[in-house]
Write a structure and sequence with these properties.
With 196 residues, the chain is mainly alpha-helical. It is built from ten helices and no strands. Helix 3 packs parallel to helix 9. The longest helix has 18 residues. The model has no long low-confidence stretch (mean pLDDT 88).
């Protein structure tokens, strides 16, 4: 199948590569980087192998449980966060220890990032990102060397940084077309087999 631990590892590796790029790495806070990496790991946790629309159309109990809204994505985060809540699985880094507000912020950030992987919502995220980039280009022109503006435009803008993380995971989730051809073809075969 397509939605398995190998896919999660591929998305994690792609997100990690993105985080090695100075423009993104310098823009995100440490908590956000950890949330993005964790979201990459769990974004398809316990995937059923069916699309959200299929689950809606058959009246799946999951569709009812998650109010017919980003069914799989809500289930992935709920199941992963339940697992994380068990004492033996508690992994929060030391900078989060005993800070309830930071832990809540971490969870909300993870949920928001994973929800962005719902393909039905792609246009919404793309539109918001284009609007941000348009605002960025209006406010900051290329520098004297012709380099594009820095992503530091998003510093102090939590919503903007969240959108950057959402676009990063969206890109990573469907990134197999930019990988070597043999990998792309293998992932393409897997998604066709799983959904069709």
């Amino acid at each position: 199948p397509y939605h398995n631990s190998s896919h999660a590892a591929d998305v994690l590796q792609t997100v990690l590569h993105m985080l090695t790029q100075p423009r993104l790495a310098s823009t995100l806070e440490t908590l956000e980087k950890v949330a993005l990496l964790f979201a990459a790991c769990i974004h398809d946790f316990r995937h059923t192998g069916y699309s959200n629309s299929f689950l809606e159309n058959i009246g799946s109990p999951l569709a009812f449980d998650y109010a017919y809204d980003s069914i799989q994505e809500r289930m992935h985060t709920a199941e992963a966060l339940k697992l994380l809540a068990q004492p033996r699985n508690y992994f929060f880094p030391s900078f989060l220890e005993h800070d309830v507000e930071k832990i809540k912020h971490f969870r909300k950030t993870v949920i928001s990032i994973v929800l962005a992987t719902d393909l039905a919502a792609s246009r919404q995220y793309e539109r918001a990102f284009k609007e941000r980039l348009t605002a960025l280009s209006v406010h900051r022109r290329r520098d004297s060397r012709g380099r594009p503006p820095s992503l530091k435009f998003f510093e102090g803008d939590a919503a903007g940084r969240l959108l950057l993380m959402q676009m990063a995971i969206k890109s990573a989730d469907i990134s197999h077309p930019i990988k070597p051809l043999n990998l792309h073809l293998a992932w393409s075969d897997r998604i066709i087999i799983e959904f069709f």
